[in-house]
Amino acid sequence: MMMKTQVLLLLLLGLCAAAHAGCNKRLLRGTALDGRWIGQPRASSVGACQAKCTAHPRCLFFAYFSRWKACQLLTNPSYGSYAYGGVTSGYSLKGCQPKPPGKDECKKLAVDTMFHRTSNVGRINNVASAEDCQKKCTAEPRCGFFQYLTSKWTTDFRKNLCALMSGLPSEKKAYGKGIVVSGYSLNQCPKN
Q1: Of 27, 56, 68, 90, whose Cβ has the fewest other Cβ atoms within 10 Å?
Q2: Which run of H or of E encompasses 28?
Q3: Which parts of 133-179 are beta strand (E)?
């Protein structure tokens, strides 16, 4: 028992240091991190609980109890941790927020790359090119980036579709050849 407590304490100390050092996406299954309780909203999943923690201004980490769909939002991680079946703990993703594009990146079109969505601002059908899609994104004040599905897209109703997205993409993924083009609103470009 003493060894298990020491291992959990070392794990907690390492994770606390990581939580304050930026982005920590690691989830701890079967371990409840214990801290000062600041809220307990209901959540349908671990991901939903993590999103609630990230959105809360004081939440540093969370414990999600799947049996009750209870999401404990926590701060002050100095209280420890304990083994508990059916719980998954993790950290706020505030430190994982995407960075704005640099001067060179913001004007370039990312061919064969799909930017991960945040939330849709709108969709425009029958757009002639990725350049035209970028112009439409730049003209829409809420648009931060876009995805353009070319005429090679697999389903007819989505061909030449310009999807406008808010904010900045959280990740970028390679996609098939000539099927998708992504890019930023020119309003995201540094001014100098």
Answers
A1: 68
A2: strand 28-39
A3: 145-149, 161-165, 172-174
pLDDT of residue 170: 67
Rounded to whole angstroms, the Cα distance separating 151 from 142 reads 26
Helix (H, G, I), strand (E, B) or coil at 176: coil
- At position 9, the amino acid (one-letter code) is L
Looking at mean pLDDT, say which of 99-103, 161-165, 184-188 comes out highest. Answer: 161-165
**Residue 118, beta-bridge partner list:** none
Average pLDDT value for residue range 111-133: 83
- 2-96 has which CATH code? 3.50.4.10
Q: Indicate the class that CATH gives domain 103-188.
A: alpha beta
pLDDT, residue 15, reads 42
| Domains 2-96 and 103-188 in one fold | yes
DSSP-assigned letter for residue 45? S
What average pLDDT does the structure give for the chain? 80
pLDDT tens digits for range 67-99: 999 999 999 866 778 899 999 999 988 777 667
pLDDT, residue 96, reads 78
Domain boundaries, the chain: 2-96, 103-188
Contacts 24+ apart (CB under 8 A), 12-20: 12/77, 12/80, 12/81, 15/77, 15/91, 16/77, 16/78, 18/91, 19/60, 19/61, 19/77, 19/91, 19/92
In degrees rounded to 5, what are phi and psi of residue 15?
-70, -35
